[in-house]
Every structure is written in C-alpha cells, then in structure tokens.
Write a structure and sequence with these properties.
The chain contains seven helices and ten strands. It is α/β, with parallel strands linked by helices. The protein has one domain: 3-Layer(aba) Sandwich (Rossmann fold), CATH 3.40.50.300. The strands form two sheets. A six-stranded mixed beta sheet has the order 6-7-8-3-9-10, sandwiched between helices. It has a four-stranded antiparallel beta sheet with strand order 2-1-4-5, covered by helices on one side. Helix 6 links the parallel strand 7 and strand 8. Helix 3 runs parallel beside helix 5. The longest helix has 18 residues. The protein is globular. The model has no long low-confidence stretch (mean pLDDT about 95). The site of adenosine-5'-triphosphate has 11 residues, from strand 2 and helix 1.
Length: about 230
C-alpha cells in the first residue's frame, strides 16, 4: 500500500498551549485508522491540520506526494472539496436543504450537473437505507438518519480520504454502530481511507490500526486491534 497522507513532526500551539508537539502520523490508501486519546489531547486539531484547515507551526503535511500545508488557502480548499470528505459529531448538514440536496452538494460544488449528481446521491442514500426520507429536511428525520446522510455526503464524490471526528458521538450504541458500519462498508468498496476519531474502544476495534495522541505526541495505541 502507498502512503496517501503523512503528517511529520507536526507542531501547533494555541497561545501557551502546545497541543501538537512533534506528531508523526500517516495513512495509506484505503486504510482505516482510529485516532484515540483523552479529551483535549488534540485529536480534532490534528484532523484539521491534516485536512489543511489549520496551518501547523512546525512540520509538514504531504497529501498524495504533495505538501499541502504550504499551499495557498484557495488551493487547499480545492483539494478538500474534490478529494476529501468530512463527517463530524453532529452531522453539520444544512438544515434548509433536504437530505438528498445535502448529499449531492459536494458533487454540485465540483461541477457535476444536477441529474448525475442526484442519481449518485440517491444511490448512496439507498445503499445507506435512508432513501425513503431523502426529500425530508434535516429536522424531520432521526439523529441516526441525519448522521447516515452526513456519511453519504462525505462519500458521494468518492474522496480519497474521509476525516470522521466522532461521527457516532451523538447517537445511541445501536444507531451509532449502523452508521459506522455503513461508513466503513462504502469506504472499503471505494478504497477510501478513513481517519476516525473516537473515544470508544469498541468503535476503534473496527480499524485496521489504532494510534493514540497524548501530551502532544502520537503512539501506537496500547489497545490491541480485535
Ligand atoms: N481555536 C482554538 N483556540 C484555542 N484553543 C483551542 C482551539 N481549539 C482547540 N483548542 C485547545 O486545544 C486543545 C486540543 O483541543 P482538541 O479539540 O483538538 O481536542 P480533542 O482531543 O479533539 O478533544 P475532544 O475529545 O474533547 O474532542 C484543547 O486544550 C483545546 O481547548
Ligand atoms: Mg475533538
């Protein structure tokens, strides 16, 4: 397997708070890596740095052979839009839009015309078993359904990597497990790499590999995979 995304010697401080202090982390194409670590250890910050949303004070981020931390904001957003997907703890869907409109958004924003975008979005909604609520707005569906739509939105443009920051954190165990299984199944089919932040050992057990962030550093997690 080839390395898709590599963060090397990453450093980032918020004021005097040195959140990342020489972090090394990499993910291969198609790989599922769980990022663990206590609350406040910098997991979300690390994801933002790797996705080019935050610029590190030190170190570098290489995505598909190209440094992205030194690119312009414009070039970084273009890469994010076309080649990355995001799922957060609370879906962050656009409430004014229906589920299918939310899901087709990444395609529409990257130039796919409306009919093929709609078709791809509906296929994925059906794959995630929420086709029946596709034309409802976000506040008219359950938390689990909304979160599955957020997963569909992250996958619809077949990104190379998905950043999932506690994607099941707002759901109960069963709903969370279904969302996660859907995310992993489609990501595997598409060979999409997934960087999955989670507090839960049970969730991390789905990953190919676990890493743990503590005191600004990264270490292989002490918890064995499966
Ligand atoms: N924009 C910001 N400005 C200042 N400090 C910040 C900012 N974002 C995060 N921090 C601080 O950086 C540290 C790491 O935060 P981060 O959100 O990355 O942790 P986390 O590991 O994701 O925690 P959690 O598990 O609770 O989500 C915390 O001490 C937090 O207060
Ligand atoms: Mg966080």
């Amino acid at each position: 397997m080839t390395t898709l995304l590599q963060g090397s010697r990453l450093g980032l401080a918020f004021g005097v708070n040195q959140v990342l202090d020489g972090v090394d982390v990499g993910i291969d194409r198609g790989e599922l890596v769980a990022v663990m670590g206590p609350s406040g250890s910098g997991k979300s910050t690390l994801l933002h740095v790797l996705a080019g949303l935050l610029r590190p004070d030190a170190g570098q981020v290489v995505f598909d052979g190209q440094r992205i931390d030194s690119l312009s904001e414009r070039a970084r957003s273009r890469a994010r839009l076309a080649r990355m997907g995001f799922v957060f703890q609370f879906g962050d869907l656009i409430p004014e839009l229906t589920l299918v409109e939310n899901v087709e958004l990444p395609l529409r924003l990257t130039g796919t015309s409306s009919r093929p975008a709609r078709r791809a979005a509906m296929e994925l909604l059906s794959r995630l078993e929420i086709e029946p609520v596709a034309s409802r707005r976000v506040n008219e569906v359950s938390g689990g359904q909304a979160q599955r739509a957020a997963v569909a939105r992250a996958l619809v443009h077949r990104p190379e990597v998905i950043f999932a920051d506690e994607p099941t954190g707002s759901l109960d165990t069963l709903a969370g497990e279904l969302v996660l299984e859907a995310l992993i199944a489609v990501a595997r089919e598409q060979s999409t790499a997934v960087l999955l932040v989670t507090h839960e050992v049970r969730v991390a057990a789905y990953a190919d590999r676990q890493v743990s962030l503590r005191d600004g550093h990264m270490s292989p997690s002490l918890t064995a995979t499966r």
